[in-house]
Description:
alpha+beta, four-stranded antiparallel β-sheet, 2 helices, 39% helix, rod-shaped
Amino acid sequence: MKDTTDIRPGLRDERGFSLIEIVVSMFLLALLVISFAPVLINTLKLTARNATIATATQIVSQQIEAVRAVRSSTATVPSCDDIRQFLLVTQPPVVDPRGVTLTAGWDTFTTCTASVSPGFVRVKVSVTQAGYSTATASASTLIFVTAGGN
C-alpha cells in the first residue's frame, strides 16, 4: 500500500519564521527606534531645563522671603540699612541634585531717601545658571522700610 500523507510532492512544512522575515522585522523595528530617538532626546533636554527652572524659582522665592524677614534686633520693620546689609552678603551657589550650579544675586534697589523712607523700596533677585549670562529666574518685590540710614 502506498503512503498518502504527502499528496503534493516537494511541499514542505512551513510553520514558523524564516531568517529573512526576522531580519526584515528587525530592520523595521530599528527604523522605528531611530525615528523616535530625536523626540526622546528633546524630551529629556526639556525635562532637565524645566527642573533647573523650578529649582531656580524656588531659590528666588526663598531669597525674597529672607529679605522680607530682615529686621534689626529691636525693630519690627526693617530700615534701609538693614536691607543694604542683607543685600551685601554674598549668597553661596546652590548645586541641585543633577549637578547644575545656580547662583542668586541681588540687583540694585530703589535708593532710600528722605522722600522714600518710611515707605517702600524695590528689590530684585535673579538666579543664574553657571555658564549662562541671562537669568534663569528672577522676581522683584516691594519692602516697607522705616527711616534709618541713607
